[in-house]
Amino acid sequence: MTDTTDNGNRMTGAEIVLRALKDNGVEHLFGYPGGAVLPIYDEIFQQDDIQHILVRHEQGAGHAAEGYARSTGKVGVMLVTSGPGATNAVTPLQDALMDSIPLVCLTGQVPTTLIGSDAFQEADTVGITRPCTKHNWLVKDVNQLAGVIHEAFRIAQTGRPGPVVVDIPKDVQFATGTYVPPSEAQASKSYTPKIEGDLKAIEAAVELMATARRPILYTGGGVINAGPEASKLLRELVELTDFPITSTLMGLGAYPASGKNWLGMLGMHGSYEANMAMHDCDVMVCVGARFDDRITGRLNAFSPNSRKVHIDIDPSSINKNVRVDIPIIGDVGHVLDDMVRLWRALPKKPEKAQTSEWHASIETWRARKSFSYKNSNDVIMPQYALERLAEATKGRDTYITTEVGQHQMWAAQFFGFEEPNHWMTSGGLGTMGYGLPAALGVQVAHPEALVIDIAGDASIQMCIQEMSCAIQHNLPVKIFILNNQYMGMVRQWQQLLHGNRLSNSYTEAMPDFVKLAEAYGAVGIYCDDPRELDDKIAEMIAVDKPVIFDCRVANLANCFPMIPSGKAHNEMLLPDEASDEAVATAIDAKGRQLV
Amino acid sequence: MNAHQQPTGSAYFISPETAKVESHTLSVLVTNEPGVLARVIGLFSGRGYNIESLTVSETEHESHLSRITIVTNGTPTVLEQIKAQLERIVPVHRVVDLTVRAGQLGQERPIEREVALIKVAGTGESRAEVLRLADAFQAKVVDATVGHFIFEITGKSSKIDQFVAVVKPLGLIEVCRTGIAAMNRGAQGM
User: What are the transmembrane regions (chain A) (predicted)?
Assistant: First the structure.
């Protein structure tokens, strides 16, 4: 361009990208360079405001950005190149879509003149990512670039948060155009999420809650997404109403696990008391959760006698799986604020006696101690390992991420989360390989905190390359592998569903994790003795470097309790009932077709 | 165990659908931008909804708005979900279920019209017969030689179906249909 006026708003597309990121409050960027993003990387090189964290695979960049977003409440940002860079980003994009994580993914694209010519490293990125993003854009005009990026941030973090993709052809990165600051950017008129809940509906909900004899609060990731204030309001609501409360996997930490009304997680591997209470309740208040199939079990037997209130920011979540009586569309934080206020203003609060029988029933269920397991002096039980880990980290600012499988469920059952934003896991998509990169993202955001990826021996190998990233950026994450030498959850299902024929679920040729850690320049710790466990965990925590902790646990332990496929909440398989025979017949022929 | 409960068991939502499947016509107002039709169609294929008919064209040039008319089918719950999912798409401004709206207005259906071009070739008596039929159906001749006609016909889909059926044995060559354009009766807009 010949325009050389010193108008501060004229700049190249690549400069626009960096300026737009900065103006949207971005401090960290997870990415991997390549041909189609070189101009942007050149700009990154020439500035210090935004720190770039170089991952080793684009999937890692996405999960790291997710961990960063989930632990801070900010938008996670990733930058990848065209073609394979973009296709590798698909998994974390879908992961973020299903778990409602705000994520902005910038992808390079071949020059506009080459689009459609099957150019080197060309892929139809907007086509491929259309179903796995909240929205996406291909920017063909440099003058629209700034506006699109601002809009991308707005859409990613407002309403129900989610991932967005901005695909930027290389010639657009080189071209000179005008930068528009966020305040002057045009917002799309068709996108107007509803934040405030309908007051009439909230009043009706509070009235219903006041009449409940067997109430329950069922909360989810929406509470976390609504910010720390929403968690405070939730705690206040529990305090005021004395309702028992359970949560989905995604919502752990919104209400403290040490709280007296806490029932534990619900669902397929949830606690007996949580699931029984869900089944038998007369009023269910669902706060920012979506009646996922892992939660409901058999739908036609799901909480048959309750009237249901559903608070959700996404209207399409209402009546999707379960019909509810009082839908409230809005941000959980705003709705809870109204709810707390209206409850306080009730002319006549319900008597304690109204729910005393209910609380007594819950205590009976609780007494079943559904998370109990038989400990051993010779081998480390996975549950024991997590109990010890939780104990050792008490009083510290600890963030937990997980991979996917048995270890993930045990972590959810045994860790006990006290605060929101301290638990990062792949819930909806169930992405093995999520935990290590997510832990890196968390550690970037919280350099002083203790960040632990509770992993399985199979999952950890799916993104193990990010060890390099941990070393390069001095991110002292701790990888605590519950190593049972199996894909434990796959093995458990094969035992339950397929006559214990363990097809391809045994990990032969396991790497030596201690040597692997050392090869990357990290610290490796091995433990197979329950008596040494505490000392070794203390050693792990004390090291100011990334650690791989190879914790050898009982190989064939199963994750209980469990609602077998095709069963209802009150048909749980409890650990003390899970004899070999009960396990073998737990799932009938029809249930076997399900997942 | 209760035998009739067993087969419906599901971690996933696969219990047999007992509610009645209905055909509804939806009007979707969208920003006319690249990819918007793909988003709408992708939603239908991705979530397993059916499309019986789909029509799209820009309706308000100044404000870059297009109107998509979709005829789909499903149980009332599914239809409600389709509408909610469509509204979630960022460039979608409004979704109106015209069939539901017609019901609220005390009418059986919204006004639904389709245009078709129909080419028929032939000579002699069959040629005369085709013209007579076209006249009866109020189909207009828009192109003709001594060997063929192209008719333009407008009406309900069922009327076009019928016309196509009657000219079929008389030398039908090809048919092109626009899909359904629809709106509700009365003074109010969507």
Answer: none
